[in-house]
Amino acid sequence: MITAKALDKRAADLIDTLRRKGLMVATAESCTGGLVAGFLTEIAGSSAVFDRGFVTYSNAAKTEVLGVPADLVAAHGAVSEPVARAMAEGAVRAARTDIAVAVTGIAGPGGGSAEKPIGLVHFAAARRNGPTIHRECRFGDLGRRQVRLESVGVALDLLTEAAGAPT
Length: 167
Prior knowledge:
This protein has six helices and five strands, in the order αβαβαααβββα. It is α/β, with parallel strands linked by helices. The chain is globular, with a radius of gyration of 15 Å.
């Protein structure tokens, strides 16, 4: 189980990497509700590399703010690979940053189903003029807070990977 202290360290390492590479980043968050942005901006000097965070908790916000097609959400559900990819790509466009990470999932305690259980989270990191990478995690029913913290860890790892640094 990841801790907030471990996330602070990973966020600081990522901020250093982004600064060295001259990259700007944005976040597009649903189930984490801004926690990824919060861990990044906890680090002194993060303003040199962090542009903005989008908390798009509702489907309407995903569509209106990030340009995620409503028919994509209707076809696959908000918690899906296609929507995570569209969120990340939409954040890069909207923020005009080099990289963006997206998180969409089911933190619990309710909202899960057999097909999409509690603890299912989809992540994507998009890089301007580069590939969008995706990761799916099934953390299980660890409790809402722990699912969200584990999700921050994966999001930081994906940003590090998208920045071209080893994770």
